[in-house]
């Protein structure tokens, strides 16, 4: 029996082939295959090609089940940059690949847990939407907690 | 190779990567001279060499929210840019970065980038303790630098100081460094490379006001024979390197003045202005030099902000943070505060964080309101406990002269009961040790029977509706009555009398039910 191949298309219109039995680790893809056989190209409008390449690399892994946990951890560890991890987590969310999303989110949490307030905002590109007065108010409110 | 014309050797050398050119100086004396003398920087740039940028990496320290600039000068690095044609992400390979290793001479000073022309860079070294600075012209390709003599005039402060580095358009193509400084009036001086001394230009007619953020003023990008600076909120000032005069310059239209940083740069041969407010970067490009209405807003892709990502991801990531740091998330932004304080977050954090903890209530004596402690149980022989003080000091006034009698927890939420001496009233608190929030339930308007009274409490969550409920059995009269408070409803509901004589104190919660011994 020849292995069936699926084609995934990234946001920037790049095509990636992957064997169906590996692709269905993604619950999203599994459902699509179940519904219409997914003979044509599967578009992933929120995933760019670089991230998709990573996801494909992950899906193509050849690990024994007992080594899988370690592999996923190592996989995200090697991509320890926050923007990459966020993109990866988003792709895993869209594709519903739970292990990958868990690992990516855990890694981000691990990275930011010791950051200062300003560093968290810098790293995750979050705008401080409080005025200095509001900032002071919330600091006072939680004075006892720090 | 030695038999070949020098031009050919230079041509070949100019195609080498930046990283290896410096080694050519070591090959033989002839090559060394070729590299040093007849190696115009612009020839090198016209070769097939990848585009690079020099970044000044300076460690920054944030202390208590304010930026401390350390005395470490940082390092200068040459970074190669891999610009892909099909999409516009810039990549740089750290391995290709070239440490210029100027650290020994830069010790205890700070560096600023003044500008670059034809691959030569001008750097300014500032001595924080002394009121002067040094100017370097540096060729990163050959790794040579020269130090300009210090300026003649002594200035009073850093008010009105700008620096620029450029090349005049005259036949000689002289490289010039210009700087302004404040004495009694604003003055300017120019140093022409090769002339050996600074030349005064006298008072400057264009006002360059004192700028708080002086560090940004030392970079004056060079284009079209002019150096450019932002001189006040949104004014651009130029220096003409031929005529050696200052002038105001048309700046982009700006609606709001809410910038954290503003800077000028050269992009694809056009002057551009970068306005940064946290991570919202706006790039204005002046399509035709000097013509005000050609300022144009550039669209580009930025790295994702957490705010652009699905909310599930944010919640997921925050819920994995340890108990002792989650509290800081409330201060990041309003959205995060709402996320953390949301009731659904309690359950999620409880399921995601792998921390196991106990909450312990400790008090010294009867008058001490006591403290609540979070004790994390770490599965390790050496440090079995890690404590986190959930200081209840702010509750001290209301806890005075009373004590916390009962404590029950569900999903990481703790319910506390306090009975006043003399049984005048009782208070119920629901506390989230993770977000360190406490709510006080309203008191019931009911009189207690004098003398012996019984109170039995329960705290649990309905698996059907997800509602947290507090159950209180009390004896205001002869019989034991049941009252239920559902979190979020703001009032107690009376469920009538209890048909059984209950004995044990706390209700244990399991499987949607409270259990008491009767």
UniProtKB/TrEMBL annotation, chain A:
Record-linked InterPro entries: SKP1, SKP1-like, SKP1-like_dim_sf, SKP1/BTB/POZ_sf, Skp1_comp_dimer, Skp1_comp_POZ
SUPFAM superfamilies documented for this protein: POZ domain, Skp1 dimerisation domain-like
Presence of keyword Membrane: no
Residue ranges annotated for the SKP1 component POZ domain, each copy included: 5-62
UniProt domain SKP1 component dimerisation: residue ranges: 98-145
Superkingdom assignment: Eukaryota
Pathway where it operates: Protein modification; protein ubiquitination
UniProt keyword list: Ubl conjugation pathway
GO biological process terms held by the UniProt record: jasmonic acid mediated signaling pathway; protein ubiquitination; ubiquitin-dependent protein catabolic process
PANTHER family on file: SKP1
Similarity section: Belongs to the SKP1 family.
Subunit structure comment from the entry: Part of a SCF (SKP1-cullin-F-box) protein ligase complex.
Stated role: Involved in ubiquitination and subsequent proteasomal degradation of target proteins. Together with CUL1, RBX1 and a F-box protein, it forms a SCF E3 ubiquitin ligase complex. The functional specificity of this complex depends on the type of F-box protein. In the SCF complex, it serves as an adapter that links the F-box protein to CUL1.
Name this protein carries in UniProt: SKP1-like protein
Gene source species: Centaurea solstitialis (yellow star-thistle)
TrEMBL record, chain B:
Gene3D superfamilies, per the entry: 1.20.1280.50
SMART domains xrefs: FBOX
PROSITE patterns given in the database record: FBOX
InterPro entries: F-box-assoc_dom_typ3, F-box-assoc_interact_dom, F-box-like_dom_sf, F-box_dom, SCF_F-box_component
Pfam families xref list: F-box-like, FBA_3
Domain F-box: 1-45, 303-348
Entry-linked NCBIfam families: F_box_assoc_1
Protein name, as recorded: F-box domain-containing protein
Species whose genome carries this gene: Centaurea solstitialis
Top-level taxonomy: Eukaryota, Viridiplantae, Streptophyta, Embryophyta, Tracheophyta
């Amino acid at each position: 029996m020849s292995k069936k191949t699926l084609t995934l298309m990234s946001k920037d219109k790049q095509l990636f082939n992957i064997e169906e039995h590996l692709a269905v680790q993604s619950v999203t893809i599994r459902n699509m295959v179940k519904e219409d056989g997914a003979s044509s190209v599967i578009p992933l409008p929120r995933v760019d090609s670089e991230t998709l390449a990573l996801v494909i690399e992950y899906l193509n892994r050849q690990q024994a089940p007992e080594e899988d946990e370690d592999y996923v951890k190592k996989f995200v560890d090697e991509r320890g940059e926050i923007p990459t991890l966020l993109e990866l987590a988003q792709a895993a969310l869209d594709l519903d690949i739970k292990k990958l999303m868990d690992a990516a989110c855990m890694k981000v949490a691990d990275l930011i847990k010791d950051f200062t307030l300003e560093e968290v905002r810098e790293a995750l590109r979050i705008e401080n939407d409080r005025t200095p007065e509001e900032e002071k108010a919330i600091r006072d409110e939680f004075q006892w907690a720090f | 190779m030695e038999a070949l014309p020098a031009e050919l050797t230079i041509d070949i050398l100019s195609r080498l990567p930046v990283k290896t050119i410096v080694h050519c100086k070591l090959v033989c004396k002839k090559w060394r001279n070729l590299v040093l003398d007849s190696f115009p920087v612009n020839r090198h740039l016209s070769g097939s060499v990848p585009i690079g940028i020099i970044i000044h990496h300076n460690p920054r320290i944030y202390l208590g929210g304010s930026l401390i600039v350390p005395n470490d000068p940082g390092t200068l690095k040459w970074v190669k840019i891999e610009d892909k044609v099909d999409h516009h992400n810039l990549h740089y390979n750290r391995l290709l970065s070239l440490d210029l290793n100027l650290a020994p001479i830069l010790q205890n000073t700070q560096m600023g980038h003044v500008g670059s022309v034809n691959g030569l860079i001008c750097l300014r070294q500032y001595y924080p303790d002394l009121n002067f600075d040094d100017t370097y012209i540096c060729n990163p390709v050959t790794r040579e630098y020269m130090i300009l003599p210090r300026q003649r005039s002594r200035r009073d402060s850093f008010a009105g100081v700008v620096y620029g580095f450029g090349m005049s358009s005259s036949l000689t193509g002289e490289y010039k460094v210009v700087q302004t400084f404040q004495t009694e009036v604003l003055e300017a001086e120019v140093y022409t490379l090769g002339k050996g001394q600074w030349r005064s230009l006298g008072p400057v007619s264009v006002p360059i006001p004192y700028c708080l953020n002086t560090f940004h003023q030392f970079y004056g990008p060079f284009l079209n024979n002019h150096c450019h600076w932002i001189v006040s909120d949104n004014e651009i000032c130029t220096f003409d390197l031929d005529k050696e005069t200052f002038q105001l310059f048309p700046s982009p239209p700006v609606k709001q003045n809410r910038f954290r940083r503003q800077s000028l740069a050269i992009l694809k041969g056009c002057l551009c202005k970068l306005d940064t407010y946290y991570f919202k970067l706006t790039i204005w490009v002046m399509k035709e030099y000097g013509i005000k209405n050609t300022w144009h807003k550039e669209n580009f892709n930025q790295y994702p902000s957490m705010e652009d990502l699905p909310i599930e991801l944010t919640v997921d990531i925050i819920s994995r943070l340890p108990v002792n740091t989650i509290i800081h998330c409330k201060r990041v932004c309003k959205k995060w505060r709402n996320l953390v304080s949301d009731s659904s977050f309690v359950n999620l954090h409880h399921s995601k964080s792998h921390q196991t903890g106990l909450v312990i209530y400790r008090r010294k004596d009867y008058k001490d309101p006591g403290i609540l402690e979070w004790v994390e149980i770490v599965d390790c022989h050496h440090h079995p406990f890690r404590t986190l003080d959930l200081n209840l000091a702010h509750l001290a006034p209301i806890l005075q002269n009373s004590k916390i009698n009962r404590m029950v927890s569900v999903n990481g939420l703790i319910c506390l009961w306090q009975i006043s001496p003399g049984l005048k009233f009782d208070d119920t608190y629901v506390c989230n040790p993770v977000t360190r929030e406490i709510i006080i339930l309203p008191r019931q308007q009911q009189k207690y029977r004098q003398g012996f009274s019984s109170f039995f409490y329960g705290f649990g969550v309905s698996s059907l509706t997800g509602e947290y409920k507090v159950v209180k059995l009390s004896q205001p009269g002869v019989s034991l009555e049941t009252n239920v408070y559902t979190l979020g409803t703001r009032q107690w509901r009376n469920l009538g009398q209890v048909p059984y004589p209950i004995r044990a104190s706390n209700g244990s919660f399991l499987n949607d039910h409270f259990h008491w011994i009767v």
